[in-house]
Amino acid sequence: MRFAATLLVTLVLAGCGATMPHYVPTPDIPDGARAGIKDSVALGDFTVKSGNPNAQFVQLRAVKLEPTVGDYAAYLKLGVRTELERARKYKQDAPLVLHGELVKNEVDASGIRVGTANLAANFRMTRGGQPVFEKPYTVKSEWESSFVGATAIPAAIEQYAAAFRKLIANLFTDPEFQAATGN
């Protein structure tokens, strides 16, 4: 009994770690929107806004959730690349270069009934070094949560990953973004 209590205290104090799921292409981008991307796109810098405390990990109760690559800006970049590859529009040496800045990166699984995620990113695209597109995007997500951590934490991880997919879908389905790829 004493060993079990010591183990429990150690785990609570140390916290547990988890990794975001690998990025999976979203069904929220219809094939027509993918076809709307005219020219191939390269990816430039993707950064986390200075001072953002959630660049390297987010805390879900006692679980420290880290991205599968680098920081959460790198996770966003990986997602954008995955979607561009799916559309057959990714080419690292293309003159059209997309940059991103993750401005807000919040997830909250502490609620007894509701979990939330808030993401915001600024995307900027250049052609030959000249700006052709710049726009902010925001995703706010809410889901049914639970007091029980074994239920709430996996749901939060799933919904948080879905918020990244939705953020990228908002970019890809935006007619202004699609038009900028054809300038």
* Oligomeric description of these chains: single chain
CATH topology: Rossmann fold
Q: Quick one: biggest sheet?
A: 4 strands, mixed
Strand/helix succession: HEHEEEHEEEHH
Number of domains: 1
User: Ranges with pLDDT <50 over ≥5 residues?
Assistant: 1-14
Q: What is the typical, i.e. mean, pLDDT?
A: 83
Total number of strands: 7
- The fraction of residues in strands falls at 25-35%
Shape field: elongated
Going by helix content, strand content and strand pairing, the class is alpha/beta
CATH architecture: 3-Layer(aba) Sandwich
Helical content stands at: 25-40%
- Output the radius of gyration: 19 Å
Q: What's the tally of helices?
A: 5
Just give the CATH class.
Alpha Beta
Secondary structure layout plus pairing:
Layout: H1 2-14, E1 16-19, H2 31-35, E2 42-48, E3 58-60, E4 63-66, H3 72-86, E5 96-108, E6 114-127, E7 130-144, H4 149-172, H5 175-180
Parallel strand pairs: 1-4, 2-5
Antiparallel strand pairs: 3-4, 5-6, 6-7
What does this entry look like structurally?
- The protein is α/β, with parallel strands linked by helices and 183 residues long.
- It has helices at 2-14, 31-35, 72-86, 149-172, 175-180, and strands spanning 16-19, 42-48, 58-60, 63-66, 96-108, 114-127, 130-144.
- Strands 2-5-6-7 form a 4-stranded mixed beta sheet.
- It starts with a helix and ends with a helix.
- Mean pLDDT is 83; it is low at 1-14.
